[in-house]
C-alpha cells in the first residue's frame, strides 16, 4: 500500500532536531530555571528599593542635623547681639552718656534700636526688663507735685515692634512684674500678653494692641488714647481711673466692674454704647472755725472768768463722675472723703 507524504510526517519517529529541543525548553521551564529568572528580576528591584529608602532616611537625618545646626547658630547669634547690647550700655553708662545732660541720648537709642530689629521675641522681653530695672524706661515720677522737671525716659520705645511678646511675672501673684510708668506709645503689640504685671500709669497712646490679653494686671491710671484694642481682653485686671480716649471698645472684653472703674471719653463700650464726654468733678468744703466766748459775772469772792470754746468743721471732699451717653446722663458718685 502506498503512503502519502502527510501520513509519513505524522508517524515520523526520527530524532528531534536542535531547534525542536530549544523550543521545548523555552516553553517548558523547569522549577530551577523559573526561580533563577525570578531572582534575577527581583534582586535588582529590591536593591533599588532599599537604596531609595536608605537615601531618604539619610537625607531626612541630614536635614534634621542641618536644621539643628541652623537653630544653634541663630541662638548663638541672638545671644551675641544681646551680650553686645549689654556691653554697649555698660560702656555708655561708664562714660557718662546716660546722664541727664546727654538728653536725647542718641547713642543709647541708636544701639538699642539696632539690636532690637535683630532680636527674637525672647531677647526683646529680656531687654525690656533690663531697661526697666535700670530705669532707662519707666522712670519713677517725683513725689513732689510742685516740681516742674519733666520725667523723660532715656530709651524711647516708640514705633518699635513687640508683637507676640509675653510680659509675665515668674512668681505669679507673689510678685508683680514691674512695668509702671513705661511709655508704650506708638508701638505694635499684637497678640501681646501681660500676666501679673504692674502697669500703673503706663501709656499705650496710639499703640496697636489687637488680641492683647491683660491677665491679673494692674492698669490703674493707665492711658489708652486712640489705641487699637480690637478683640483685646482685660480679664480681671484693675482699671481704676484708667483713661480710654477716642477708643473703639466694641470688640473688647470688659467686665461691668471695670467699666465702672475706668474713665471714658469719645469711646464706644462693648455693649455698643457711645460715650461722648466724661466729666470728673470734685467738690471740697473748706474747714470752718467757730469760737464762742462765755463770761461769768464776778461774785464777792471770785474774779470774772472767760471760757472760750473752739469748734472746727471737718473737710468733706466729694468726687463724682458724670458720663454723657447718646441717650441720657448718668451721675455716678465715686467717693466721699471726710477729713
Automatic annotation (TrEMBL):
Residues 279-301 are annotated as: Disordered. The keyword Repeat applies. It comes from the Eukaryota. InterPro entries: 5peptide_repeat. Keywords: Repeat. The keyword ATP-binding does not apply. This is Pentapeptide repeat-containing protein. It comes from Rotaria magnacalcarata.
